[in-house]
Amino acid sequence: MKNSYAIFFIFLNVFILLFLIILLKNILGREYYFSEILENQYCVTYNYLEATESFRESDGLEPISLATHATSDMLKTLENMPKMWNSPISVAIFVDEKTQKSLDYLQNLHNCDKEFQRKMTIHVAFRKSAFQKRCPPLLRPKNSETSCFEFLSHQKSYRDRIPSFFGLYPFGLMRNIARKGAKSDIHFVMDSDMIVSEGMDQKIKRIANQMLDGKLKNVILVRRFENVVGTEIPRNVKDLEESMRNNITFEFHHKYFFKGHKIPNLTFWRTQSQDNLPVSTWNEPYSNPDWEPQPILHRNSPLGPDYVPSRVKTMCSVIYKLCRAGYNFHVISHVFNVQEGIKLDNTVYGNAIAHHQYTYARDKVQERFTKEMDWKYPGTKEKCGHFVF
Ligand SMILES: *[C@@H]1O[C@H](CO)[C@@H](O)[C@H](O)[C@H]1NC(C)=O
Ligand SMILES: *[C@@H]1O[C@H](CO)[C@@H](O)[C@H](O)[C@H]1NC(C)=O
Q1: Is the pTM above the cut of 0.85?
Q2: For residue 24, is it within any domain?
Q3: Distance 267 CA to ligand 2 centre (A)
Q4: Ligand 1 test: best mutation among 231, 246, 247, most atoms within 8 Å of CB?
Q5: 186 C-alpha to ligand 2 centroid (Å)
Q6: Domain check: are 117 and 248 in the same one?
Q7: Last residue of a domain, which of 165, 191, 217?
Q8: Count of domains forming the chain
């Protein structure tokens, strides 16, 4: 008699425990995402919205993810992105109190736009508040109250109601989130205001798979251009050449800090990028510690420092770190991207941010980064030069 009571109670307890676990999982798991804390400053939620397609095809090749980052002012750009990239896209979006509505907008888009849904995976980052010890869980997107018909027919007015982001934006951290959350192992790290040349993801697939196998220490670099505002953006090499001849398209930032972007030997790139030639790459030595070309790299290659302040050499620090880690740089033919607008100077806003962040950079970040590099990669100090924020 006693025994059967005991068994009954054990079963009851197990049953209650199971019930509680399932209840907890339902309440927390379904409604909320857990967010992870980074640098004791930022909260990050991966896969807030997830792409429905993997783009793994019968060729057995690893698809190339476009890894990019944005704020609420870039919603239109994000919307157009699936049209130019036929492979997975991983976006880290930064929100604050005023711009969190962009998440509802993206959810509607993900729900209603099939191309967007197939390709786009969205990760969310926001700044932890003062005195907050932990990151609050992020509410999962609920089924929208807006119908797709309603949303798609008033898309612009929905978008226009979301204010622009204004604040310190952690570029380095955001690029890392986009890379960590990407759904494939090869990543093209790009700023979201760039327009890529036609069919880029397919053109680079084979050669990127050969060169970026996760073991070889290679990085592929993509040439970058800028276009006079309001003119047509060239999307293939032939149009690019004509547009350059007409002084409409130029090498990226050719009038503003060209040292940071210059990839030498454009003439050679042109001859290698003829239609009848296959896509190829060739070695390009590391230029200088202020260099910030756009990389295609494997998941296994090092991430940039998360802690670099806004607008203070965020991309340069990634490229420098790759040099210190012993990576070789290779320029790729045929593909490129273009930004609208010729940069002549920093904006007042950009300068203000750089100034604000500079003190912090000089005092804290410089020491931390130098120490990290010299400890991790003691052998490459001479080869890569001295990095100064
Ligand atoms: C482009 O600019 C160069 C240098 O300023 C000039 O010599 C050339 O005539 C310009 N070409 C056209 C088509 O305007
Ligand atoms: C351009 O690069 C090619 C291949 O690396 C090289 O043969 C050629 O000499 C270079 N030209 C210049 C002007 O640097």
Answers
A1: yes
A2: no
A3: 8
A4: 247
A5: 28
A6: no
A7: 191
A8: 2
243: left (phi over 0), alpha (psi -120 to 50) or beta: alpha
pLDDT at 313 over 90: no
State whether the Cα torsion 41-42-43-44 is positive or negative.
negative
Of 321, 339, 309, 121, the closest CA to residue 222 belongs to: 339
Do 182 and 197 sit in the same domain of this protein?
Answer: no
DSSP, residue by residue, 75-88 = HHHHHHHHHH--S-
**pLDDT computed for residue 29 by the predictor:** 53
Long-range contacts of 210-213 (CB under 8 A, 24+ apart): 211/281, 211/330, 212/186, 212/296, 212/297, 212/298, 212/301, 213/298
Query: What confidence tens digit (pLDDT) does each residue in 196-238 have?
Result: 999 999 999 999 999 999 999 999 999 999 999 899 999 999 9
Considering only CA atoms, give the Rg of the chain.
Answer: 24
Fill in the DSSP letter of residue 260.
G
From the CA of 264, how far away is ligand 2's center (Å)? 9
Give domain status of residue 263, yes or no.
yes
Compute the distance between CA of residue 245 and CA of residue 267 in angstroms, rounded to an integer: 13
**pLDDT tens for each residue of 139-196:** 877 777 789 999 999 999 999 999 888 888 888 999 999 999 999 999 999 999 999 9
**CB–CB of 262/358 below 8 Å?**
no
